[in-house]
Amino acid sequence: MEYLEGETLAHRLQKGRLPFNQALGIGIELADALDAAHRHGIIHRDLKPGNIMVTKAGAKLMYFGLAKPARKVPSVASIPATPTISESLTAKGTIIGTLQYLAPEQLQGAEADSRSDIFALGAVLYEMLTGRQAFAGKSPASIIAAILTLNPTPVVQLQPMSPAILEHAVNRALAKDPDDRWQTARDFAGELRWIREGSVKSSPTISSIRRWSWRELMGWGVAAAAAMIAVMLSFRARPTMPINSISSM
Questions:
Q1: Bridge partners of 78?
Q2: In this structure, is residue 198 part of a structural domain?
Q3: Annotated catalytic, 46?
Q4: Of the residues 35, 46, 113, 117, which is catalytic?
Q5: Phi, psi (5° rounding) for residue 40?
Q6: 239: number of Cβ within 10 Å
Q7: At 61, which CATH number?
Q8: What CA–CA distance (Å, rounded) separates 128 from 13?
Q9: Could you report the per-residue pLDDT of 20-65, keeping only the tens digit for each?
Q10: pTM of the shown model
Q11: Which of these, 201, 189, 43, lies nearest to 125 by C-alpha position?
Q12: Domain of 71?
């Protein structure tokens, strides 16, 4: 197997949320990875921080042990306590994947497709941006209830400096109805790239700020010099009285 030097995203998230640009960059790389898999007819079905490596070369999506073409997921009858359920994949009454990142249709026993992976990616992106899971609970039942009925705390409420358009992108990925989500990982990646480009353009760099300040100072200097010259010329143009005429007054 390929040796990857780095750390899992799950390990990195133990230190807290990621910087905005890093989170957005990893989100784009993961969306590209999903797009490549989906184009080959593969659905990952277990996208989570523990299956993502953060390396110097970028993010790597790993562990395709549960990956299969879209198929009917058994209805929920029992919920084992293990984080990832991989035993008896074809048995009835089991959930395939990691609970906190499963899409509503997977929990309801509907067929999982590429949009189920997009939901999981939305949950991972939310976690990178906020430092907390999109759906959490004290028990498997409460987690399932949150995924099926609740919306996560808005990103802008937890991170006020994040752009509103990013909130829309994440919310669309986490839509309860698959038809309301991004329909392809490629579309999701394109939206995240557009947001990243917009944030870069709207945030001036230090060098650009320095250039702007220098130009402003030069402008004020020229204006001040022109004013001084005008004052001097006005004094020269003013008529003067001879000294003898002043003494005779």
A1: none
A2: yes
A3: yes
A4: 46
A5: -95, 10
A6: 4
A7: 1.10.510.10
A8: 7
A9: 999 999 999 999 999 999 999 999 999 999 999 999 999 999 988 7
A10: 0.72
A11: 189
A12: 6-202
